[in-house]
Amino acid sequence: MKRYGPLIAVTDALAVGDPGRHHLRLTPDAVLLREGMENRGILTWDAVERIEIAVPTTRFRLPGLASTLLLGALAALMLSDPGVDPDDGQVEVIVDGEAIEMPLSRHHVGGYWSPTVVGAHRLLQHLIDNPQQRRLLAHPEALIDLAARLARG
């Protein structure tokens, strides 16, 4: 399973957000609004004008590692699960001029490294603007590599 910031490779699709909770699932044919395994809506790519994700960001390069270590140390001190879950972010999808908003679950407590969110936005807009590239969503690992290159570009 390959991940880059809010993007994660899942079987035959690219997930934006935590695929176990609120997320978008991007397939070559459609954008699926999901809550875990349940579909909350299906949007055709031709109708999608923009996807904007709003999640906390940080300049620290390894925020997931830091939050895991801190929560692990806290759990060891408390001798129990501290019960800290990441707050949801937000995603806005503009479809035929109308905004659809939904929560976007995060993978870890703390923000995403800022360049990963920039890369995710650039990749999403690239997929919207270039329909012929959407077939790459069947191979999401390659798209995660592309998002990393777009973040540096």
Task: Produce a short descriptive summary.
With about 150 residues, this protein is α+β, with helices and mostly antiparallel strands. It is built from three helices and eleven strands, in the order E-E-E-E-E-E-E-E-H-E-E-E-H-H. Helix 2 (about 115-130) packs across helix 3 (about 140-150).
Alpha carbon gap, first and last residue: 24 Å
| Rounded Rg | 16 Å
Order of helices and strands: EEEEEEEEHEEEHH
Average per-residue pLDDT, rounded, comes to 84
Indicate the percent of residues in helices.
25-40%
Unreliable sequence segments: none
Biggest pleated-sheet summary:
6 strands, antiparallel
Side by side, the strands of the main sheet go 1-2-3-4-5-6
Counted by DSSP, the helix tally is 3
Please report the total strand number as a whole number. Answer: 11
Taken from the alpha-carbon principal axes, the silhouette is globular
Report strand %: 35-45%
Which structural class should the secondary elements be placed in? alpha+beta
